[in-house]
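In the current project phase, the collection of sequences with tokenised folds has grown. One resulting record follows, to show the layout:
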Amino acid sequence: MTPSLSLADQIALELRADIIGGRLLPGVSLVEAELVKGYNASRHTILEALHRLGQKGLTRYVRNKGVMVRRLARAGVRDLFVVRRTLELQAIAQSGPLTDVQSMRMQSAIDATHLAREREDWRAVATHSLVFHQQIVALMDSPLFNEFFAQVIAQLRLLFCAAPDEQRFQSPWLERDREIYTLLASDNKPAASEAMSLYLDDSEHLSLALFDHP
């Protein structure tokens, strides 16, 4: 845990990491008593952490059920992709040639996605792909944008859980992530930007299609 943060903030970050990692799924109840025991924290601290998650759009309160991990609505999906286009395309546009560290982090995320696909762990495929896109935003070298985008990918993770066929939903993206990385590594920003724009268009279309059938 990060010492500079309050305990409530640290717990909220750990719960967010569980959402991004696919360990907390939409509709799951976050039971106060279990969290108090699991984190050895006071009830007040747990309530504060859950309130922070609610502020970030990751949980919601349901009468007679308590706090639950949120299910995304169609309007929320459109908003997420507005944010993605703004941040990811801007990050590419203003980036310079990749540094060794930036290249290594992107390549590591792609390698992890590939290994997860080989294991047919489609939940992990989605998580590692999101990590790759977090590294795209990190090209702006802005801690504030990095933190904001972490909230975005946590909500995207909740969206991906709605896919009835995870393999079909996640299969197209690894090679396209790799293509974007290759273009960035060769410092071909116009082509990388175009590839990212098409990627986001197709991803939004596929994501919205999840709401077409009950």
Remarks:
- The chain has ten helices and two strands.
- The radius of gyration is 18 Å.
- The mean pLDDT is 91.
- Residues 74-209 form a domain with the Four Helix Bundle (Hemerythrin (Met), subunit A) fold (CATH 1.20.120.530).
